[in-house]
Amino acid sequence: MTIVPILVLALGTFAFRFGGTLLRDRFTLPDRVRELLSTGAIVLLVALIATSTLAKGHAFAGWALPAGVAVGGLLAWRKAPFVVVVLAAAATTALLRLAGVA
Amino acid sequence: MRSIWRTLDSGLWRGVLAIAAAAAVNGASFGAIAVAAGNPLWVPVAMSVLVFAGGSQYLAVGVVASGGSPIAAVVGGLVLNARHLPFGLAVGDVVGKSWPARVLGSHLLIDESVAFAMAQKDPVRARAAYWACGASLFVAWNVGVLGGALAGSLVSDPNALGLDAVFPAVMLALVLPALKEAGKLRPALLGAAIALATTPFLPPGVPVLLALLGLVAVPRRTESAEVKGATA
Fold this sequence. Notes:
The complex is a heterodimer.
Chain A: H1 3-26, H2 31-54, E1 55-56, E2 59-60, H3 64-77, H4 82-98
Chain B: H1 2-7, H2 10-36, H3 42-50, H4 54-65, H5 70-81, H6 84-95, H7 99-107, H8 111-118, H9 123-151, H10 166-179, H11 185-198, H12 206-210, H13 223-231
């Protein structure tokens, strides 16, 4: 890989980030639109969670990963501290893989 | 900066630092993989500082390593990062008003900083959480990448440590409270279903963007707006 593709990827990515924040500032948005934007962000985040939990590339991720995420999610729902969520999720997935569960 | 320290409680800081630690290990893995694929040291380092979007970095290095063209690598990475535009629209007012703040703050826009900001109740805490998370992860990710690139295959497989479960679990913890708000759960579930159903067929990044179609499930008007409309 050379410097040119890295710079193009960097500039393009920055343009997405900067463009979004700039557009947000240029217009005073009605409440309805603001609400829709924040719902849109939540929709994107949940879709990211779903795909990064259940898929690796185009295929099913195996059971160890969703099991770890489920344990973390359950602890978060029971208002466990963040650190506990992180450690429990990683430990569950790691131990299941150690035990041979994909 | 000092106000960010004071605004955030220690629980939130511990959360940020736990994710940063996971990001450092993940970064070390990226650095090691990039160097193992035949890239000089500066490639993963420059990429991580300038692009600062882990998924697209893995994708770009992977495409080139498997014989793909740099153009395909860049296009794939950009498609994957296109979600940052709607994210910027959603958290634009959290980033800051001045030009330096907006330029730097935009660069720190990642899934985690957006999720941390959106999980806060008031704008002051949202801004503090955004910057604390973005800056911590920037430092952790880049230190990790440099370390991994130098050390080679020190952490060749972070998945054996279950670190791939950290990102979705953390995001889930951050998003859960928002899902209880009126009109959020149904579009989110519909969007996730669309993303999952299309993942086997579409290039990475596209299914997540398609999830925005889930917004059709947003109720036409919130109930409070209807009440206001009725009394007006």
